[in-house]
């Protein structure tokens, strides 16, 4: 993150049981959250062995492509606008990565329990289905923000809808989003 601080923002567990044929649509994380700033990252850590065929995939360099609308995973439709101001941001539809995969440099790996994939929250990523009839794919995913992160308004309902009692423009460190590390 190239930050003097690391603030814990959010976590969740992602599971794809054997025989899950639903893919995770291409998206980037930051649009879902009420967080602005460039010193932000997601950490994807499997608790099961995950072969490359079912591992999360990334579009190299996409963190520099600007802002994309968040998508509902169940339908792949964009979130509904609530009318809030987007400020100076222009949000676009996520490109059809799967429709022209040769156009993109897509990265993925075989990973083992405890391995971590760390990526910028504006990096486009998605995940294939899990057609295995025996392998479960469970992942702990965390979100971290740094020095320049502030609470931001989004023109849709953010997920999770937690603001820690902060107002728009406030730095993120608070009781809800604790400062975990500070450079000496």
UniProtKB/TrEMBL annotation:
Which cofactors does this gene product need?
Answer: Fe cation
Pfam families named in the record: PhyH
The domain of life is Eukaryota
Q: Which InterPro entries match?
A: Phytyl_CoA_dOase-like
| UniProt xrefs under PANTHER family | PHYTANOYL-COA DIOXYGENASE, PHYTANOYL-COA DIOXYGENASE DOMAIN CONTAINING 1
Q: What is this protein called?
A: Uncharacterized protein LOC118419175 isoform X2
Q: Read off the lineage from the record.
A: Eukaryota, Metazoa, Chordata, Cephalochordata, Leptocardii
- Report the gene name: LOC118419175
């Amino acid at each position: 993150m190239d930050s003097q601080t690391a603030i814990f923002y959010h976590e969740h567990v992602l599971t794809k049981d054997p025989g899950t044929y639903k893919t995770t649509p291409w998206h980037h994380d930051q649009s879902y959250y009420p967080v602005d700033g460039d010193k932000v990252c997601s950490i994807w850590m499997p608790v099961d062995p995950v072969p490359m065929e079912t591992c999360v995939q990334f579009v190299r360099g996409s963190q520099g492509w600007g802002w994309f609308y968040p998508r509902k995973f169940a339908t792949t439709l964009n979130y509904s606008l609530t009318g809030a101001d987007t400020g100076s941001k222009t949000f676009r539809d996520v490109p059809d990565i799967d429709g022209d995969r040769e156009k993109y440099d897509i990265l993925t790996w075989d990973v083992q329990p405890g391995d971590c994939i760390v990526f910028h929250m504006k990096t486009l990523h998605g995940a294939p289905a899990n057609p295995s009839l025996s392998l479960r794919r469970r992942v702990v995913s965390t979100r971290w923000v740094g020095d320049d992160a502030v609470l931001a308004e989004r023109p849709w309902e953010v997920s999770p809808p937690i603001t820690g009692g902060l107002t728009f423009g406030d730095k993120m460190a608070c009781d809800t989003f604790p400062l975990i590390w500070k450079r000496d």
